[in-house]
Structure formats: structure tokens, C-alpha cells
Amino acid sequence: MRRRELYDAASGGKGPRLLPWTSPEGKPCYLSSDGRGYLSALADSIETVQLSMGQELLEYARDATAPGVKPLSATEYHWLACRLTEALADALRVADSRGQRIPDQEEAAEDA
Fold first, then answer.
1. pTM of this prediction?
2. Cβ within 8 Å of residue 50, ≥6 positions away
3. CA-CA distance, 89 to 59, in Å (whole number)?
4. Taking a C-beta distance cutoff of 8 angstroms, is the pair 8, 15 a contact?
5. What's the number of CA atoms in the CB half-sphere (13 Å) around residue 34?
6. Which regions in the chain score pLDDT beneath 70?
């Protein structure tokens, strides 16, 4: 059996799940499961935290850049830009992971 077939068999045909963290070397991590185990639940929790933190950061950025508000220092703007970049990367990773798990319309019609 080829590697892809093994992934599909272990995950119910959906393929491996992209996890919301990377390896120490910065490489993507994947999970091959049916989506009901401890690591799947942990990944779901981490995604929720990442998206919540991104939302809070966005609210802070909107408040900090609103008209009439005292401007931030260059250091504070740099910090904000770095955190927004991290939050965007997290959100895109979550979107990619969740998008990969959405069944194709053709497959969904065949299963029905």
C-alpha cells in the first residue's frame, strides 16, 4: 500500500490533517486519524485559542489606529505588526487545515 493510501485509510479517506503547530525545524505537522482522538481535540482547542487571540489582537489594532487616538511609538507599531503577522499566519494555517477537511461536492453527493 502506498503512503497516501495508508493516510486515506487511517483518516477515513480525507487524508492527513494539517496541525496548528510545526516541528522544531519549522516543518508542517500532520495527523492521520479519524478526527476523534486526543490529538484531534488538542488541535481543535489550539485552533480556537489562535483564532481568539487573533480576534483580540485585531480589536487592539483597530483601537490603537482609530482616528484621534494618541499615536503609538515606532517600537509599539513594530510589535503590533509582528503580532498581526503571527496571527494572520495562524489564521491562514487554520483555514488551510479546515479547508482540506471539507469534502468535495462530488464525494458528498456519492456518499448520500
1. 0.76
2. 20, 87, 90, 91, 94
3. 17
4. yes
5. 4
6. 1-14, 106-112
